[in-house]
Write a structure and sequence with these properties.
51% helix, 16 strands, alpha/beta, seven-stranded parallel beta sheet, globular, 39 helices
Length: 823
Amino acid sequence: MNSHIKNALLNGRLVLLLGAGASRGCQNTLKEELPLGLELAKILAEEMGEHYSDEDLSAVYSAAKVVMGAQLNTVFEKHFKHCIPSREYIELVKYPFFRIYTLNIDDAFEKAAHLYCEKKFNVKQRYDCISEVDQFYQTLDYIKLNGDINQPSGGYIFSPQEYGAGSAKEPIWYDEVARDFYKYTFIFIGTTLKEPLFYHQIEKYKAKTNSSDMKSYVLIPELTPLQTKGLEASNIHHLQGKLSDFVDWLNSEFVTPPTSKDLIKNIRPELDFDNKENISLFSDVTPVNRASLALLPKNTSETEIREFYKGFKPTWFDIIDEVPAFLSNSKNFFAIYLADNKAKPLDLYLMLGSAGCGKSTALKQLALKVSDLCDKNVYFVDEYKDNFKQLVVELDTRHKEPYYLFIERIGDMAPEIADIIKYAKSQKAIFVSAESSSIWASRVKEHLNNYVTSEIDISFIDDSDANIILEKIEKFGNWTRLAKMSTKNRKIELLKKSKQQLLIGLMEATSGEGYNEIVKNDYQSISCEAQRALLILAGLATTQRVPANEATLTRALSYLDVNPNVHFLASQMEGVLKFSNGNVTTRHRVYIDKLFNMYVPTEVLLKTIVAYIKAFSVYQFPIVKNISRNEASIYKHLVNAKFLKRLLKNQKEVVLSVYERFEKVFENEGLFLMQYGLALRTFDRQPEAYEKLRIAHQAFPESAHIEHALAQQRIILACQEDNETIAMAHFDEAERVLKRLNSSDIRVFDHYPIITLSEGHVKVLDKFGHIPQAKILAKTYHDSISKNSTINANGRVKQTLSNLAKYYINGVWLAQNDHELES
C-alpha cells in the first residue's frame, strides 16, 4: 500500500470493488468457506450429476440453469445466504468508505455492516436508481453488480448469455461505476477483472475521454506479467496481496479508523466545529474568521490577474487579500449599522441592488470586517437551506453571546426568517443579507418589510470610489488598456461604465470592448465541443445561482456524446469556469443570461437541456426528495415551464418537445408532469393541460402545488365551457380544493389559493350572465382579502384587489386583468 491510497481515503476519494477473492474467510450455513469460481462450478456439476472436467463457471452455470431450473436458487442459498462475515469484512466496515462495489452475490458483507457499521448502510442492485454521494460521508452504499442472493428474482450475471443481455440493457450502476472509475481512486480486491460488462462500460467511457485514467490498483496475490501490463494500460497497478493484507495495513496506519467527521475536517475545514453533532446543518455555512478561511482550498493558478476581474464572484481569498475595492456604500453601511457592536439580536440589515452591482462582494467584505472588528462570531450562508430554522436553533445552543448570520440570498428563506423574528425564536441571531431589488419587490418584501431594521441600495457606486477601484485593477486586473490613459480619463471611463452595473463596467473598462462583445468572443473562442457543452451545462446551474455538481455534469456530457471528464475539461477553461471540490461554477449570472439570450443557438440549448434532464432521470422519484438542495434547484429549473419558454424563445413546438421526450420516463414524477401541464396551459392547450395535471396529482397526491395547479385548470376549463352545468361541476371541485388549501394557510409559488378562487369564481359567474351575484361575490372576496394584512404587501394580491374592486363598481371583468394563466 502507499500514501496515495491513504490520502485518497482521508479525502473521500477511495472506492473499493470486491471480487470473489475478497470473500475468503467468510463462512456459509454449512460452516464452510464460500465456494469461488472453479469450486462453485464443481458443486454445480455435482448437483446436476455430471462429471466436472475443469470447465469455466460460466459454461457450467449456463447448463445448470437449464437442467436445475428453480432448484438452482436453493443451491445458491445453501452456499451464499446467511453467511458469517470474515474478520476482514468486520474491520473494513469501520472505515469511512462512501461506495463499495461488489461482483459477489453473497450477503457476508451486509451482515458485517449491519453488526459493526455505524454509518447508514444501503444495498443497491445494478438496476436500482442512482443515489447521490453523501457529502458528509455518513452513508455507505454497497452496490451488487452481478446479483444478490437475497433478491434472486433480479437474476445473476455469470454466463455469456447474461453478459450479452447486460450489454443490451446496460445496468444503470455499471454505467455509474465507469464514471466513478474516472473520478476516484479504485482498489479492485480479489478479482482479475475478467468482467466483460465492466470493461465494456470503461472502454465506452474512455473512448470519450482525452485525459489519462485515474491511478487505481488491483489487490490480488498473483498476476502474470502479461496480465499486469494489460491492466497498466488502464492505469490499474498490481498490489500483491489479499484483503487481509489491506486490512492489516489500514490498522497499522490508523490507531483508530478515521470517521466521516475526520474526512469532513480534511475536505471541508470550515465545518470543523468542536461540537460535531448536527454537522449536516452546516452544509454551505462558512464560519468567517481569518484562521478558518485560510484553511479553505486555494486556486492553484499562478496568474497574478485574479478571476474576480474576469467576471467571477469573489472567493474568500479574494476578500482576505482585498482584491475587490471596499466601496463607500459598504463602508458607510458598516460604520452606521454594524461597527462597535451596534447590532442587536433579531435585527435585520439588508443591501439591495441590481444584478451585477456587487452585492455578493459587499456582503463577504462586511462579514470579514465584522469578524475582525466586532467580538461576535460570524457565519456566511451560501445557499438556500430548507433546515434554516434548525440551523438557528443549533447556533443559539452553541453560543452564549449573539452572533451574525450573513445570508447571500435571503429571498428563498424569507418566510423562515420572518417567522424567527416575529415570534422571537432566536435570542442571539443578527441577520445581514443582500437581494436583488426586483426579487425583493416581487416576493420578499411582503414577508420581511415589517422586520427590516435598515436597508441600503448599492446599485450605483460613488464618484469617490473611482481611485480605489483603479488601484485594485492595476494590482489585480488587466491594466494594459487603462495604463495608456491619463488619470482623469481612467476615472471618466470607469465611472461611465461602472454606473450601469459594476460587474459589467469593470470588464468593459479593462477590455475596451462592450460586454456583449466580451461574452461573444469568449464563447466563439471555445473550439472544443465538450468545453462548450460544459459551459452551457454549468451556466444552466448559474441561472439559479448555484454550482453544478460533477456527477450530474458527467452523466449529461456522456449523453451529449462528448468528453465527460469534467475535471479535465475545467482545467482547460481557466477564466471561463472554475472547478472546486466536485462543483463547477461559471462567471456571474448576468454573463450567462447574455450568453444564452444572444449567442447560444436554440437548438444547442435544447439538446443540452435534454441531456441535463436525462442526467437526473437516474434518481428515485420524486427526484427533488432524493438529491441535494443545489441539484434540486437545478432540476426544478430545467423542467420549469416559464424558464423553458423564456430560454427557448417561446417556441411552442421546441418547448413541448422537451416534455414529450420524457413523458414516459417521468410518468411517475409529479413535478415534471405538473410543469408539462403548465406548459400546455400557457400554449392554450387546456384539455391536454388538464389531463397532465390530473395525472401529476395521481403521481404525487400530497403536493399542494399540484393540487393548486389542477384546481386552477378546472377553473380555466369552466371559463371556456359553454354548458353551465359542466362548467359549475368543474368550478365546484376547484372551489372545494382551494378553500381547503386556503384554510391551511398554504402559499403556492407567488400565489395564494384565495386569489385563484376569488378571480375564478367571479369570472365563471360573469361568463354565464350572473353579474349581480358576481358583483356581490367580488365585494365579499375583496373585503375578506383586505382584512388579511399578512398577504396585502404582495403585488399579485394588490392587483387582485384592484380587479375585484373594479368589477364590483362596473360589472366588467377586463381581459387585461386576467392572471389565472400565470403559474
